[in-house]
Amino acid sequence: MKRLAMVDDTFLRFESRRQPLHIGMLMLFEPPAGAGKEFPAQVAERLKQSTRAAPPFNQRLVRRGGLHYWEQDDEFDLAHHFVHLSLPQPGRIRELLAMVSRVHGGHLDRAYPLWRIYLIEGLEDGRFAVYLKIHHSVVDGVAGIRMLINMMSTDAEASRQLPPPWEVGTRRSETNPLPIPTRTAGGLSALRSLTREGLKAFTPVLRELRSSFQDFRAKNADLVVGGQAPRCLLNQQVSGTRRFAAQSYATPRMKAVAKAYNATLNDVILAMCGGALRRYLQDLDELPDKPLVAAVPVSVRRDHTALGNEVAFTLAHLATHLDDPAARIVAIKSCMDYNKERIRRLSPAQLVTYASLMLMPGAVNALLGLTPDKALGNIVISHVPGPRQTMYWQGARLSGLYPASLLIDSAALNITIISRHDTVDFGLIACRKTVPHMQRLLEYLEDALTELEGTIK
Fold first, then answer.
1. Which fold is adopted by the domain 2-167?
2. For labelling, which of 93, 159, 219, 400 has a CA lying 20 to 30 Å from the CA of 427?
């Protein structure tokens, strides 16, 4: 048995009926040329012949003395984890997204290893889908992408010989996992890590905190701290229902905008999200006067492990108070450049400590309700780099990679993006009751990109 790291354990303890804390991935595949309609069923039958699983797919949760441990499951049952489904007619993407919405809202059974995979056929365009969900106590987003890449190949024929995803072994980190800064686990784990490094390790953190305080007093628009986000529709309690939406946008379009503004692809992504959220909230007459604040996860992973959570958060405003798309992307880029300077000057443990302390004012306000009109943040927007080549699985070409993240109270919408060589794939997950008509955001994201393109012509 191996005891869970503090942050991984936190995901288990914070889970509730309304807040399942697993993450998911919807993958779309195009069958090889000449393959018949029975191709997905043939893949499913081949996968069902598997009789073993590698870590973390063969590890189930056990509890001893109030603590959680991973233990190898000697009674591994593939029938519980692998499900073969067919979409209801007419098999549109709408039906697929509705199915994923329902499946993503269900909890994983802790009596078994905390994952499940669905092979879904019946799409009207001939493609088939694979949806994988796995508990966030097992992997973070970067680790999850690496696991998925390990199960694919850049060669179509070679991909037919690859074992099922649950048979693909992964290498554990030789270092302690670095946490996501929550109200408790993040700060405590990071401070403990810095204590082991010695007193000198605290000096850069104190220097950055002093600099941030000076910027706060000077009202630097690029500085964002926890607790300054305007409370809005997205900051409500979530229900147990979910709605999932997904869309791809051409990478060359977004890179052209980035080049024109001397920005990064991530800056363009945030500008698209800011423009889409501004219009969405305007339609509902819910747009705050102050800009929305996004929590943007930053990977602090320093090796190639595929397990554990090694992430810190930085805060960025989305300039939703600005009507001009050009002014909006310039403001977002300036804010992100400001954050990157901080990141470059700190080690991973120092960064997590600094990020946790910058979240502290918002966390205290969330607990005590000192300023009810303010929130810790409004939304989590994650951008994870994906494969940079055409990938194949079981002979089929990967055509879409759409993440489905988790939701918690006061964060009723999550947008996670995977950038590939030819497309940037957006996955949106929201509370169905709290965020009405969420699928409209897909249209507004396209409109926001078109507006940005219009500013550079």
1. Chloramphenicol Acetyltransferase (3.30.559)
2. 159
